[in-house]
Automatic annotation (TrEMBL), chain A:
It comes from Teichococcus coralli. This is Tripartite tricarboxylate transporter TctB family protein. The chain crosses the membrane at residues 14-34, 54-74, 95-118, 130-148. It holds the Pfam family TctB. The keyword Transmembrane helix applies. Keywords: Membrane, Transmembrane, Transmembrane helix. Residues 19-157 form the DUF1468 domain. InterPro entries: DUF1468.
TrEMBL record, chain B:
Keywords: Membrane, Transmembrane, Transmembrane helix. The keyword Protein transport does not apply. The chain crosses the membrane at residues 20-40, 47-69, 113-140, 147-164, 170-188, 200-221, 261-283, 319-342, 362-385, 392-423, 464-487. InterPro entries: DUF112_TM. Residues 21-439 form the DUF112 domain. It comes from the Bacteria. This is Tripartite tricarboxylate transporter permease.
């Protein structure tokens, strides 16, 4: 990929390929193990409940080994390709961690409060100032409240704030 | 002429104030979704799907298809003005579109793109209109073995022509199938792959997976590259628009060739992204203007745009007639059809005439609406893109979270969305194709049911898949497709891979 020159590589394509193959391998083993809780057999009624998932797991395991083998066969070329630079990884991390917080807090705090905190926090953090942060958060909360609670009738998770305000 | 009559009837269904309003709303939402990097057509359609649960099916499909057209057009707008493809399928449009815009020919580039896209879509719709009842009557002879053979063929052709590495395509398909088996097994009643987690009993929703893969995954990819908006003037004077429109017929060869490529790629599961790249590549090789491609040649816009929209539209035909979607967006719509209580497949054309022909005629109308609206709103949406991405990205995250929640009102789905966001990022990085995964999730259950029903009929013998000429032909073709990578490997002995694949879907 076209990484900028100043960004020192963190992961080579080879490492990421092998990591990907490892994830697929783990997935395949999990699926095959899970399938073994059901009969993996062929009766005159055709395949039993566990048969399809079991073989899917086996195919995933074999494919992961094949992918790892292909990657290792071209390890010189792939090891020289950087796919993720330090700066890029940092940007992804800074973007990803707040999403983890958003997901973790959405149910206990209610999605409205969480989205307000998330939006205001992200905008402040990116240097957009208090006014823009509060305005964006307030607009998003008000719009989604009217859209989802009234218009689409799709209630979003609510928490202590809404209960305290007596809104539901 | 039976089709024409049915089409006229369809227009009476589609042409109501309510439906026209949905079309306009859908197109505008779609353009917004297409313009914003990090939100694509499959994601946009997925985000709207929960809102359609309470609508009648005709209104629902009109809203979703209009959003799809809008998203395809919106993707071209940003490709040309900002060199940022809003959609994977509009990447090829940047090659000549952005150079033209930088030369001050933005109006010409945009008009050329929209009109040739409209032409491609029109060819796609006419093909659907002409072929649908033929395909449906053919498909009426389908029993479980035939259904399974068609599903098998769809997956085999992904392996053969999908453009990814065969092993990675297989991983993608297998993952989708495995996710589809999670939950209650309708034959034995057992709980499969739930690992005693109560959240998994209702299964893994493909909507949540799509929101993660395409929404969060795409945002992570965009975050990784520092986005540099280099906007050019988005002013469209009516005169420039008319001049560009008048020049379009000159490219009739490119228009027809690209439309044919698009329709073919749409009906077989190549999808719009592969279609646009293929069309651009073929045009560059065979056109008289080939040498000027990449430096602002209108034909380099005409070719990918026409094929992109022709493929997107033509993908509706196998979705309706066979229940086999050939693009990720069509797979999401197919899931919608099943949620609305419709059973995609040949019987749809007999039991749900209003729905099928209402939808087909709405495709004519919504494409015209889309071309007009997209020309009218270019300055507006170009202004939205001046908002810094650091504001837009968190808003997209919130939209994704709300949609993932609204699928089943479950907090667990938010975590699933996050996990699949990371998976989507990894898949894009390593060129694992995502569309087969979505396809397998949507039709996995149906394929397994068809297979098990066939096995019950035949008492466990595979001979049933060669029981008559029809099913035997489809099965043989599928096996040939599956062996295709092996054949090419033998013909072209192993050589060093040419780096990361060009395909983005």
């Amino acid at each position: 990929m076209d990484e900028s020159t100043e960004d020192s590589p963190l992961l080579s394509r080879l490492a990421l390929e092998l990591l990907g193959a490892l994830v697929v391998l783990g997935f395949g083993i999990t699926v095959a193990m899970g399938a073994l809780e059901h009969p993996v057999a062929w009766s005159d009624q055709g395949p039993q409940a566990g048969t399809l998932p079991f073989w899917l797991g086996v195919i995933a395991i074999l494919a992961s080994l094949g992918i790892a083998g292909q990657a290792l066969a071209q390890r010189r070329v792939l090891a020289a390709q950087g796919v993720l630079g330090r700066q890029a990884a940092l940007r992804i991390g800074r973007f990803l961690l707040p999403i983890v917080a958003l997901v973790a807090l959405a149910v206990p705090l209610g999605l409205y409060l969480t989205m307000a905190l998330y939006l205001a926090g992200m905008l402040l953090w990116q240097g957009h100032g208090w006014k823009a942060a509060l305005l964006t958060a307030a607009a998003a909360v008000l719009f989604s409240w009217f859209a989802f609670e009234h218009w689409f009738m799709l209630p979003l998770p609510k928490g202590p704030i809404e209960a305290w305000l007596g809104l539901y | 002429m039976e089709n024409l009559e049915a089409l006229m009837h369809g227009f009476t269904v589609a042409l109501t104030v309510h439906h026209m309003a949905l079309m306009i709303g859908g197109v505008l939402l779609g353009i917004l979704v297409g313009v914003l990097p990090g939100l694509g057509a499959p994601n946009g359609v997925t985000l709207l799907l929960p809102l359609t649960f309470t609508m009648d099916p005709v209104s629902a499909i009109i809203l979703l298809t209009s959003t799809y057209w809008g998203a395809l057009f919106g993707g071209s707008t940003t490709s040309i003005l900002f060199n940022i493809p809003g959609e994977p399928s509009s990447v090829a449009t940047t090659f000549d579109g952005h150079p033209m815009a930088r030369q001050g020919r933005a109006a010409e580039a945009l008009t050329t793109a929209f009109l040739s896209a409209g032409f491609g879509a029109l060819v796609g719709i006419v093909t659907i209109t002409l072929l649908s009842s033929f395909v449906a009557s053919f498909a009426l002879r389908f029993a479980p073995p035939e259904y399974f053979a068609v599903y098998f063929l769809a997956f085999a052709s992904f392996v053969a022509f999908g453009g990814g590495k065969p092993l990675k395509t297989i991983v993608s398909i297998v993952t989708g199938f495995a996710l589809a088996t999670v939950g209650m097994d309708i034959v034995s009643g057992g709980m499969r792959l739930t690992f005693d987690m109560p959240e998994l009993i209702r299964g893994v929703s493909f909507l949540v997976v799509v929101i993660g893969l395409f929404g969060i995954g795409e945002l992570l990819l965009t975050m990784e590259e520092t986005l540099e908006f280099r906007p050019v003037s988005a002013h469209l004077s009516p005169r420039a628009v008319l001049q560009a429109a008048a020049r379009l017929p000159r490219y009739w060869v490119a228009l027809l060739r690209s439309a044919a490529i698009g329709v073919w790629m749409g009906i077989t599961p190549g999808g719009p992204t592969a279609a646009s790249f293929m069309s651009y590549g073929i045009a560059r090789r065979f056109s008289r203007n080939g040498a000027r491609f990449g430096r602002g040649e209108p034909e380099g816009i005409v070719s990918p745009e026409t094929a992109d929209h022709a493929a997107g539209t033509a993908a509706m035909l196998p979705m309706l007639a066979l229940g086999v979607p050939s693009s990720a967006t069509a797979a999401v719509m197919l899931g919608g059809l099943m949620i609305w209580g419709l059973n995609p497949g040949p019987m749809l054309f007999i039991e749900q005439r209003d729905f099928v022909w209402g939808m087909i005629s709405s495709l004519y109308l919504s494409n015209v609406v889309a071309v007009v609206l997209v020309l009218a709103t270019v300055p507006l949406f170009a202004a939205i893109l001046r908002l810094p991405f650091t504001v837009v990205a968190p808003l997209i995250v919130v939209i994704c979270a709300i949609s993932a929640w609204s699928v089943a009102s479950a907090g667990f789905d938010l975590w699933l969305m996050l996990v699949f966001g990371l998976v989507g990022w990894g898949m894009k990085k390593l060129d694992y194709p995502i569309a087969p995964l979505v396809l397998a999730m949507v039709i996995g259950d149906k394929a397994e049911d068809a297979f098990r029903q066939s096995m019950i009929i035949s008492h466990g013998s595979f001979g049933i898949f060669w029981g008559n000429a029809l099913v035997g032909g489809i099965s043989t073709l599928a096996i040939l497709f599956l062996l295709w990578p092996v054949v090419t490997l033998i013909r072209r002995p192993a050589r060093a891979e040419p780096g990361p694949a060009e395909h983005l879907s």
